[in-house]
Design brief:
The chain is α+β, with helices and mostly antiparallel strands and about 325 residues long. The protein has eight helices and 17 strands. It folds into two domains: about 130 residues, Probable inorganic polyphosphate/atp-NAD kinase, domain 1 (Rossmann fold), CATH 3.40.50.10330; about 150 residues, Sandwich (Tumour Suppressor Smad4).
Length: about 325
């Protein structure tokens, strides 16, 4: 198969007979490997041809994705391609979206990650052939991105226990070659043993409020809390930053709060304080030193990204 970064062109050039797509496939995405990526190209080529779409495929590793996205943007500005498609998970989508933000270059998504949160919230089919058909036929619409300290995020941003869990999970995956879920379990229990509690000052729109919490969660638009839709977003274009501050301050209470969340039984009065803001700031002062740490989130109304997909979120 082609090596990462090597461009594989279809036999016919990208003509103006239909949409001209540059497809960036991340060979390191959650469910991808060399055989999967090559099979994706083989499977999608006749699908795109049947839909009168000219597609050009580029295989890459995760660290090459941003550079190739920047090259794709330059080609789109030059009129060589009409849209960019990314095949990967949420991390791959975030990387490409950060390059295309506010550039009016449409982005198509092929879900190749482990969880594919963003694609699911957009209503994009998990079947790749169906996703390709959505890209070829789907209407374009603008959805929200969010920003923290100059970094784009598509789903959420958080402070506290969850980043610790993710860092430990990825360390275990790297060292022990574990699947994501297998690495997640020991990472969660380690985080509960070394339970972080942060003293934060959250401020926005003329007020400041102190908190002591193990987790502050910022969502790009509202996340559902009900049993069968937990963790899903029904809208990605409301221009909202949705804040959730965990109230449980002890490991045991936090664990049972997570269990209640999984069954849709979480209560705002007992477990989580939630509200919506436009440009929140979070400030933390470390005990015993003068170092101050600040995170600043920007309103979801800007930046934004144009996606090719279903007309509304599922």
């Amino acid at each position: 198969m082609p090596q990462p970064g090597e461009l594989t062109r279809e036999s016919s050039p990208l003509t103006k007979r239909g949409p001209r797509l540059l497809v960036l496939l991340n060979a390191a995405a959650g469910t991808a490997n060399d055989k999967v990526i090559e099979s994706v190209r083989v499977a999608l080529t006749p699908v795109f041809e049947g839909l009168d779409v000219a597609a050009e495929f580029s295989f890459c590793s995760g660290h090459e994705l941003k550079r190739l996205a920047e090259t794709a943007l330059a080609r789109a500005k030059a009129g060589e391609i009409d849209a960019v498609v990314v095949g990967g998970g949420d991390g791959s989508i975030r990387t490409v979206a950060s390059v295309l933000a506010n550039k009016s270059v449409p982005l198509g998504i092929l879900p190749l990650g482990t969880l594919n949160h963003f694609a699911k919230d957009l209503g994009i089919p998990m079947d790749l052939a169906s996703a390709a058909e959505v890209i070829a036929k789907g209407a374009e619409r603008v959805v929200d991105l969010a920003e923290v300290n100059g970094e784009i995020f598509i789903n959420n941003s958080s402070i506290g226990i969850y980043p610790y869990i993710v860092i430990d999970r990825e360390r275990r995956r790297s060292h022990h070659k574990l699947a994501k879920w297998m690495a997640m379990v020991p990472a969660v229990f380690r985080a509960l043993r070394h339970f972080p509690r942060r003293r934060l000052a959250l401020s926005a729109e003329g007020w400041t409020r102190p908190y002591r919490t193990p987790c502050l969660f910022i969502g790009n638009n509202a996340y559902a809390m009900e049993l069968f839709t937990l963790g899903r977003r029904h809208h990605l274009d409301q221009g909202e930053l949705c804040i959730s501050v965990v109230k449980q301050r002890r490991p045991f209470g936090f664990f049972w709060m997570v269990c209640r969340l999984c069954f849709g039984w979480a209560e705002q009065a007992r477990d989580i304080e939630s509200f919506k803001l436009q440009t929140p700031k979070c400030d933390r002062k470390r005990a015993g030193c003068r170092l101050r740490w600040m995170a600043k989130w920007r309103s979801c109304t800007l930046p934004s990204i144009t996606v090719r997909g279903p007309g509304r979120c599922a």
